[in-house]
Amino acid sequence: MKEFLNVAVDIAREAGAILREGFERPKTITYKGEVDLVTESDRRSEELVVSRLKKLFPDHGIVAEEGSGAAARTKYCWHVDPLDGTTNFAHGYPCFAVSIGLVEDGKPIVGVVFNPVADELFTAVRGEGAFLNKKRVRVSPVEKLANSLVATGFPTHLRKKSSNMEYYWQFTLRTHGVRRDGSASLDLCSVACGRFDAYWEFGLSSWDTAAGVLLVEEAGGTVSDLTGQPYRLGGPSLISSNGRIHAELQEVAASIAARVAKDG
Q1: Which of 49, 59, 101, 132 has the most CB atoms less than 10 A away?
Q2: CA 250, CA 239: separation in Å to the nearest integer?
Q3: 104 forms bridges with which residues in the sheet?
Q4: Domain count within the chain
């Protein structure tokens, strides 16, 4: 397992150097849809990560955001977001990361998230704890939702069909506040190291969460879907927390879901 972790760390740092260089230069931006940005740095970062993984682990599958992976059905599969937080990156907001997660038979076993601007490297191996720059981290001790700081995110497409604004409103009323930083992997890392007490979002892809989910769990936190069922990569909803406020989060989420369904 250490071999996988060391490789992921080295590759994440290489890709992070590409992003850091690109962040400081004028950016070439294209669109995958009406509002979904792609930068040249996305592509360069993904090309590097995927080429390295293919060379070192030719029998492994790879699922990457920009589509250059090889998503074969194998025991081991890497889930790669070469630039999580592209919109932030494109606008000069320094909240973005490289996220690399290794999944064995559908279960994350290695996770690396690297923020090259802050020089923060989050790492985890199943059963061995979560770390920030080699120092062990744990989730927060907050016991009540009312005393918590939480985070969420919103989709870049189909915004008008998203019900998350209702969740945002209700959780804002019931907590110290809700943050929206625009990088799912870093939001999960913030739960893992106690900066946030919880984070929820809808419609995330496997490359958004494979590394971060493992980090939360290894830091002592809890991850599920909004109904309390086990979270599966690429599932329709995710809620992560320090574990202590998870039941309360689910109760509130259930009441919101019922209200949204009633209002149609």
Answers
A1: 101
A2: 8
A3: 76, 107
A4: 2
